[in-house]
Specification:
Elements: H1 23-34, H2 41-56, H3 60-83, H4 90-109, H5 113-138
Helix pairs in contact: 1-2, 3-5, 4-5
Length: about 140
């Protein structure tokens, strides 16, 4: 290890992640730049990989999240249309959520990806409905 990198974890201590960027890599570059260390060729390459990954993923998470949140909003409208506004106890909400989670488990065991997605949206929607009730009842 070069003197300028002596305070950093070794490559054997680095954990893996699915994208080519992870907290370890970003923290390494931040530390080096903050302390005005000269970047080795390996670290310059790492910094470039981080920049390339960030540029290729700009907006992706928020677009995906917007899509998911829209699915949840649509499901909440469907639930209100079917059941009306609910003012359940915490115990009742928990029972409903566990019933929906059970349906997720069934879809998972059957490897039914389409139904699993629908059930996950329903779980999230029920949690949103519970939060709505909580906030209304607690004037938050």
């Amino acid at each position: 290890m070069k003197k300028r990198d002596q305070h950093l974890p070794s490559d054997s201590q680095k954990h893996s992640c699915s994208p080519p960027i992870d907290n370890w890599a970003q923290n390494r570059i931040n530390f080096l730049e903050l302390n005005k260390y000269e970047l080795t060729s390996e670290n310059r390459q790492l910094k470039q990989q981080i920049e390339n990954w960030k540029q290729s993923h700009t907006g992706t998470a928020s677009e995906l999240q917007n899509h998911i949140f829209q699915l949840i909003r649509d499901e909440r409208i469907r639930q209100d249309g079917r059941w009306g506004k609910q003012n359940n106890s915490h115990e009742k909400w928990l029972t409903i959520i566990f019933e929906e989670i059970g349906e997720c488990a069934r879809a998972t065991l059957k490897k039914d990806e389409k139904n699993l997605k629908e059930e996950l949206v329903q779980v999230a929607s029920v949690i949103v409905a519970w939060l709505e009730t909580y906030q209304i009842n607690n004037k938050i």
